[in-house]
C-alpha cells in the first residue's frame, strides 16, 4: 500500500527543517521573506505561512514582528520544581537567565479577587517578570501581592529574594498545573507560535492565618519546560515491645 504524498506545507517544512539540521540555515539567521519563500516553493502565501507555523510550533523558527522569521537558537530547558520554588534552568556551568521586572499598582478585579481572596478593588501590586536567554524571551510570570506586603523597590533579578522578607511565614503553597495554548498576548511576548502548548502553573501561597500572601501565574513554553514534583515518604519504624 503506497503512502499518500505529503502536503505542500509539510514538504516545505521538511525542506527547511533539513536545511537547519545540516547547518545550511544557521541559528539566528533570517529566513527569506514570506513572499520570496512562497515564490521559491511555488505556493500561495497562506500555504507558506502554514509551513512556517509547523516549524514555529517545533521551536525551530521564531517570528519577530516587523523583522521576519529567524532560525531560533536552541534554548535551554527550564525545570520548575514544585513546592513554591522559582523556575530554575541552571547547571553549574551556565549563566542565569536575565529577568526584567516591571511593577505596577492595580486594584483587584475579575479572577484576581477569587485568586487572592480579596474584595473587589483591593490594592495589589503586580510584578510582570520576563526572563530572557540572550535576546530571546524564555518564560513569563505575573506575580500578585497585597500592596502592604510588596517591596517599595525591586532591583531586577532580586524579586524572589525580596518578597519573602516582607511576607509572614507560609503555611500552604498550592500549585495547579495544566497545559493550554498561549493567549495572543503570551504568544507575542514570548515570540512563540500560537499552536505551541505552554505549561501553565498557578501558584497560590497562604500564611498561617489563611491569608493569601502571593499568587503567581507562570507561562512556560512546552518546548523548553519540565515540571518536577517530589514527594518524600517517611517510614515509621516501630520497635516491638519486649
List the helices and strands and how they pair.
Layout: H1 8-21, H2 34-41, H3 45-57, E1 61-64, E2 68-71, E3 78-81, E4 98-107, H4 111-116, E5 123-133, E6 136-146, H5 159-166, E7 170-180, H6 184-190, E8 198-207, E9 212-221, E10 225-228
Parallel strand pairs: 3-10
Antiparallel strand pairs: 1-2, 4-5, 5-6, 6-9, 7-8, 8-9
Helix pairs in contact: 1-3, 2-3
Description of the structure:
It contains 6 helices and 10 strands. Strands 4-5-6-9-8-7 form a 6-stranded antiparallel beta sheet. A two-stranded antiparallel ribbon has the order 1-2. The chain is 23% helix and 33% strand. α1 (8-21) crosses α3 and α2 (34-41) packs across α3. It has helices at 8-21, 34-41, 45-57, 111-116, 159-166, 184-190, and strands spanning 61-64, 68-71, 78-81, 98-107, 123-133, 136-146, 170-180, 198-207, 212-221, 225-228. The chain is elongated and about 65 Å long. It is of the alpha+beta class and 242 residues long. The protein folds into 2 domains: 8-71, Arc Repressor Mutant, subunit A (Orthogonal Bundle), CATH 1.10.10.10; 78-228, Chorismate lyase (3-Layer(aba) Sandwich).
Question: Whole-number radius of gyration?
Answer: 23 Å
Average pLDDT over all residues: 84
Element-by-element helix/strand order:
HHHEEEEHEEHEHEEE
Shape-level CATH architecture of the largest domain: 3-Layer(aba) Sandwich
Low-confidence stretches: 89-93
Strand order of the largest sheet: 4-5-6-9-8-7
What is the domain total for the residues? Answer: 2
**Care to count the β-strands?**
10
CATH class type of the largest domain: Alpha Beta
Q: Quote the beta fraction.
A: 25-35%
CATH topology (fold) name of the largest domain: Chorismate lyase
CATH superfamily of the largest domain: Chorismate lyase-like
Percent helix range? 10-25%
Content-based structural category: alpha+beta
- What form results from the Cα inertia axes? elongated
- Main sheet: strands, sense, barrel: 6 strands, antiparallel
Alpha plus pi helix count: 6
Amino acid at each position: 500500500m503506497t503512502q499518500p504524498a505529503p502536503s505542500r506545507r509539510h514538504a516545505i517544512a521538511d525542506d527547511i527543517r533539513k536545511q537547519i539540521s545540516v547547518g545550511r540555515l544557521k541559528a539566528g539567521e533570517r529566513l527569506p521573506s514570506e513572499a520570496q519563500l512562497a515564490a521559491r516553493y511555488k505556493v500561495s502565501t497562506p500555504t507558506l505561512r502554514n509551513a512556517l507555523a509547523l516549524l514555529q510550533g517545533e521551536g525551530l523558527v521564531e517570528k519577530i514582528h516587523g523583522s521576519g522569521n529567524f532560525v531560533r537558537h536552541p534554548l535551554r530547558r527550564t525545570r520548575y520544581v514544585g513546592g513554591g520554588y522559582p523556575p530554575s534552568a541552571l547547571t553549574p556551568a551556565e549563566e542565569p537567565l536575565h529577568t526584567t521586572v516591571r511593577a505596577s499598582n492595580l486594584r483587584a478585579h475579575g479572577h484576581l479577587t477569587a485568586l487572592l481572596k480579596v474584595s473587589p478593588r483591593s490594592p495589589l501590586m503586580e510584578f510582570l517578570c520576563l526572563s530572557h536567554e540572550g535576546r530571546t524571551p524564555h518564560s513569563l510570570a505575573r506575580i500578585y501581592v497585597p500592596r502592604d506586603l510588596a517591596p517599595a523597590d525591586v532591583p531586577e533579578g532580586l524579586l524572589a529574594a525580596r518578597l519573602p522578607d516582607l511576607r509572614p511565614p507560609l503555611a500552604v503553597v498550592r500549585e495547579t498545573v495544566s497545559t493550554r495554548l498561549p493567549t495572543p498576548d503570551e504568544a507575542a511576548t514570548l515570540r512563540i507560535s500560537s499552536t505551541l502548548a505552554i505549561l501553565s502553573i498557578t501558584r497560590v501561597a497562604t500564611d498561617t492565618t489563611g491569608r493569601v500572601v502571593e499568587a503567581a501565574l507562570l507561562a512556560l513554553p512546552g518546548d523548553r519546560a519540565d515540571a518536577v514534583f517530589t514527594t518524600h515518604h517517611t517510614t515509621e519504624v516501630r520497635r516491638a515491645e519486649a
